[in-house]
Amino acid sequence: MTNQEQTTPSFEQAMEQLERIVAKLESGDVPLEQAIELFQEGMKLSQLCGQKLEQVERKIEVLLEQEGGLTRKPFNPGETDKGENR
Question: Which GO terms describe its molecular function (predicted)?
């Protein structure tokens, strides 16, 4: 495991950290300088979560029944075709 893998939080850990940051910022009890630092950290965590979701999305494959067998097709969340042949 590389150093980056050891220090990069999982999606769940990043979301938990992000939720704590948002709660602190929403409380209004944070001095301006600390609020800016928290905001920057939150933006990094948000970007990390987005990247992790994109990675997972690329890994998802949908099995479609086609011509009596199964074929693999990359998952496309925006696709309206629900396995129907066009």
Answer: exodeoxyribonuclease VII activity
42-73: burial string, b at 16+ Cβ within 10 Å, e else: beebeebbeebeeeeeeeeeeeeeeeeeeeee
In one letter, which amino acid is 33?
E
* Inter-CA distances, 25 with 31, 40, 48, 49, Å: 10, 12, 19, 19
Alpha carbon 2 to chain centroid, angstroms? 21
pTM (two decimals)? 0.64
> Across residues 66-73, what is the average pLDDT?
63
Give strand pairing partners of 62: 73
What type of residue is 52? K
